[in-house]
């Protein structure tokens, strides 16, 4: 009996790993079953060819994915329409399913390429996030929950053939929902899922039961979010294995720099930065619902309205208060619709029906909401003129796509501030985007120059940054592994999703008897 494990992404070699881009093939010969763990875009690798998160044109996707090693070479898992378009026969999948740990792009970026009938396992909150992401973004790019069959033919009314389009062309995915603390199978492999604290709803870690023993997979986790008890519960379940845990695949995303602070600390940090300020703009990861709750609390503490985008509002509607996320009828929250025609939606002499022509269907539901009247227990629409004329009354969510438009309309007055509440750039493309951002902030008088990181003052940032990551720091990884190793002294630690995997045998896991640093594309037979 053996378990074969191959890393197509999320690993490099001993000296240099890969931050994200998780694609790991598990093949259990003893149980005659196999699955692919995540199918993420490899951001560091992809950005050498494309501006993250962009990717090849649809008709070239699979060929370029093979040539550039963007996605795993696993037979029979890719879309029928793309395979037919490049002249290939449709083969049966060589795996029993795809296991999705959570909905970040470096874990699901390849999902739009996966065939619709491959069983795809994800938590219900992950499915909800991906559904909103798909339907409020680029529908032809983010085909996570279903996809358009772009190249297949159907019968026309004349007895000939036509390309399918519209609803005829939509193929729903075979998505199978798993819940935490509930056992399920992929093939004959038993899976045990556990919620972990991360920066995205539905993030799960696993203990899987293989023919060679129990195997832990941390996925992405932390202890300093709004639900550290999730991660603590998972670690306790690893400890409870009491020697039965044979392997533990542990992520080490951010061991290479110091990072501290909690989500609750952000409330105080934001409050300190905006004290006495006029206009306050803030950027944060759109799908980080913990951060949305944190910034709502900061707004309430400072008697300001937290102004969010329509797409953010759709996420909150879909999640409906789970895990303590804000609801749209909370007193200190409102939505800002982007202005499609100058002032049309805010002019009383134009009916809403005319404004609707400029908005997507999912945006239109907000057009008729009551206009801002101060703090009200009803969902309100904030106008740009409200922000312009009352600049000290709001904390405004600013996405890169709408930054210039919002700042030009509002024209921030003196003593205003912009705060970044997301990670700083880690690729060349992101550094270029940051420089564009700085130029825009300078143009509107919002740039205060380089600033020390609010929680790690020894690190200088190019702007005000108040952020807590979705990952453990070095000490937290070390403490976690020590607990696991004490209870399971013969466990083999397998680092992944880490820029410097050698830190595991040299430091954070040096008490382990066995550390296996995987090399990308090498197949490991675990006895």
Q: Keywords for this structure?
A:
16 helices; Metallo-beta-lactamase, Chain A; Rossmann fold; alpha/beta; about 25% helix
Would you give an account of this structure?
This protein is an alpha/beta fold and 527 residues long. The protein has two domains: 312 residues, Metallo-beta-lactamase, Chain A (4-Layer Sandwich), CATH 3.60.15.10; 199 residues, Metallo-hydrolase/oxidoreductase (Rossmann fold, 3-Layer(aba) Sandwich). Helices cover 27% and strands 20% of the residues. The strands form six sheets. It has a seven-stranded mixed beta sheet. The longest helix has 16 residues. The mean pLDDT is 91.
CATH superfamily of the largest domain: Ribonuclease Z/Hydroxyacylglutathione hydrolase-like
- Category from helices, strands and their pairing: alpha/beta
Overall CATH architecture of the largest domain: 4-Layer Sandwich
Give the oligomeric state.
single chain
> How widely separated are the two ends?
7 Å
**Beta strands, count:** 26
The number of domains is 2
Label the overall shape: globular
CATH topology of the largest domain: Metallo-beta-lactamase, Chain A
The strand order across the widest sheet is: 10-5-4-3-2-1-26
Low-confidence stretches: none
Query: Would you tell me the overall average pLDDT?
Result: 91
Task: Provide the β-strand percentage band.
Answer: 15-25%
Largest sheet: 7 strands, mixed
C-alpha Rg (nearest Å): 24 Å
The CATH C-level name of the largest domain is Alpha Beta
Q: Give the helix proportion (percent range).
A: 25-40%
Number of helical regions: 16
